[in-house]
């Protein structure tokens, strides 16, 4: 499968990428831990099969100090001992928020209660927005067959300045 379209080299696509980057900046200022943001983004990207986003988030998380063990275990976080209760709540929200069509209720009350237990209002706003944003990014990249494997750490931030 070859890439269908280069969103970053298109004027409209580049403008949209800058808006994504601006939203990411707001998320970074939200108080939601960067590690949680990367884990959530990675998990949603795994579910959606977005190779470019998986590549991006693994490399950015690694550069920020995340361990290889935790990154390898994100796909099996329920069967792992390396994530905090807060991280587990965020990962559950990422999964349920990504798989909306798989459950008649969307995000369960149990997951929502765990999120509220561990995150303040600003962090909840950021977390919910992050789940929506990463799902949108996944869809953009998957639709145009954007491949993973060649991302260089920091390249997205540099390209969207």
From TrEMBL:
GO molecular function per UniProt: peroxiredoxin activity
Domain of life of the native organism: Bacteria
InterPro entries linked to this entry: AhpD-like (IPR029032), AhpD_core (IPR004675), CMD-like (IPR003779)
SUPFAM superfamilies: AhpD-like (SSF69118)
Keywords (A to Z) from UniProt: Oxidoreductase, Peroxidase
Domain Carboxymuconolactone decarboxylase-like: 17-96
NCBIfam families for this protein: ahpD_dom
Protein's UniProt name: Alkylhydroperoxidase AhpD family core domain-containing protein
Organism: Amycolatopsis xylanica
């Amino acid at each position: 499968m070859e890439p269908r379209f280069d969103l970053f080299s298109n004027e409209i696509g580049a403008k949209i990428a800058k808006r994504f980057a601006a939203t990411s900046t707001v998320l970074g200022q939200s108080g939601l831990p960067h590690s949680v943001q990367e884990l959530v983004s990675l998990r949603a990207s795994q579910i959606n099969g977005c190779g470019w986003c998986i590549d991006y988030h693994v490399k950015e998380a690694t550069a920020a100090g995340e361990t290889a063990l935790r990154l390898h275990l994100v796909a099996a976080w329920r069967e792992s001992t390396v994530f905090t209760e807060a991280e587990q709540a965020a990962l559950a929200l990422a999964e349920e928020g990504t798989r909306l069509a798989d459950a008649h209720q969307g995000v369960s009350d149990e997951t929502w209660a765990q999120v509220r237990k561990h995150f303040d209002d600003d962090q909840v706003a950021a977390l919910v927005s992050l789940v929506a944003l990463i799902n949108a990014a996944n869809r953009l990249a998957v639709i145009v067959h954007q491949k993973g494997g060649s991302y260089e750490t920091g390249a997205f931030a540099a390209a969207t300045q």
